[in-house]
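Justification of resources, computational component.

The compute hours requested in this renewal are based largely on the per-chain cost of generating structure records like the one below. Each record pairs the submitted sequence with a full structure-token output. That output is archived, and it is also reused by downstream analysis tasks.
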Amino acid sequence: MAKKIPMRQCVGCGEMRGKKEMMRVLRTVDGQICLDVTGKKNGRGAYLCKKEECLRKARKNKGLERSLKMNIPEEVLDDLEKEFTSLKKEFEKLESE
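The structure output for this chain reads:
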């Protein structure tokens, strides 16, 4: 029997993908926003494809704010975008090896 792959919806483009193919944005218990690379940290999570355009779309349509049920300041979104970009480069480096 084939193993079931957990699917998640991107808050940017709305596409359904496997959980491992996506990045998890996390709201911690104390209200901080960060990227959860392991996908196992405690807190409320929202998923994004590993594309910058999905982060931009989620920012424009307030998808992250809706999913995390809070207002997110612009500077936090800017930091998230920088972190997202640097992690994306690391993933690409690992995949090419």
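The chain has one domain: 8-96. Helices lie at 52-60, 63-68, 74-96.
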